[in-house]
Specification:
The chain is of the alpha+beta class. The chain has two domains: 72 residues; 84 residues, no CATH class. The protein contains six helices and four strands. The protein has a four-stranded antiparallel sheet, with helices on one face. The longest helix has 22 residues. The N and C termini lie far apart (61 Å).
Length: 167
């Protein structure tokens, strides 16, 4: 095991410079072995970087990527339930049956693993089971495998789910 006390000032500067150039821990470890002839493990390299208070540029990129991915995950989880509050207040449930009449029912006893569940019959007569899981994600399980409801049916279904979640 190696510590910062075992390094010369030139070696410390070299490590800092490599990190500044964008090297990650693996690159620094290889350069320590190759250029400075120091036999270090990946963990030794990580501890040296921490002891020298060096911030790796790779970590900055990973943190930025992670926050973007976290935001995308939240947007995906909201899925069909996202909508502006104005839309929800204006028309929480369709007042009149449209040409594409979609029929909904909510289960009195919610299915296991769901916050809410029920059944839906789309305008073309295809029936499906719907649920909102414990993370708030909606799901549809049609009787016909691979079935995809029409756009107007989905919009009406989303309105129903929004109203159900809101009230």
């Amino acid at each position: 095991m190696i510590s910062i006390n075992d390094l010369s000032d030139e070696q410390k500067v070299a490590i800092a410079q490599w990190a500044e150039e964008g090297a990650d821990l693996s690159d620094i470890q290889k350069r320590l072995k190759g250029e400075l002839k120091l036999n270090v493990t990946y963990m030794d390299t990580r501890l040296l970087v921490l002891d020298l208070n060096i911030k790796l540029k790779v970590e900055d990129r990973e943190e930025a990527d992670s926050s973007v991915k976290d935001q995308e995950s939240v947007e995906k989880e909201e899925g069909a339930l996202n909508g502006s509050p104005e839309e929800l207040r204006e028309n929480p449930l369709p007042d009149e049956p449209s040409a594409a009449a979609v029929e909904f029912t909510a289960d009195e006893i919610t299915r296991p693993g769901a916050m809410a569940s029920g059944s839906v019959t789309f305008s073309d007569g295809v029936k499906a089971v719907w649920l909102i899981d414990e993370y708030g994600r909606p799901g549809i399980d049609p009787e016909t495998p691979g079935y995809q409801p029409s756009e107007s049916d989905l919009i009406e279904f989303e309105k129903y789910l929004r109203a159900l979640v809101q009230g």
